[in-house]
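Bench notes, afternoon.
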Amino acid sequence: MSLAGCADMKTTVLIGLLSVWLVGPAAAADVAAARPLSRPAAESPADPSQAHLSADRPLQAEAAESYAAREAAAPELEQWQGGHAGLYIGGSALTVVLIILLIVVIF
């Protein structure tokens, strides 16, 4: 294989990878956007003024009481200030670094 053929293959691979990386998230978002966000008509309340009332209100009150009891049992947790050491690298930053690395290695 000649060097010119190798460069053409690298360019083709790079274009293919970039197109998959850039088109993949857009295609996934399009599929997610196609799903309905509203409730089916059978679940909607008959009276729109009663829409804020929900059957799960007792569960919410129960959960709030549980949280309040746990908070009262451990007042020293109010002073807690998590660890200050750590580094977070997001997915977008990692993707940009990988693309730059691929470009440097291929060319």
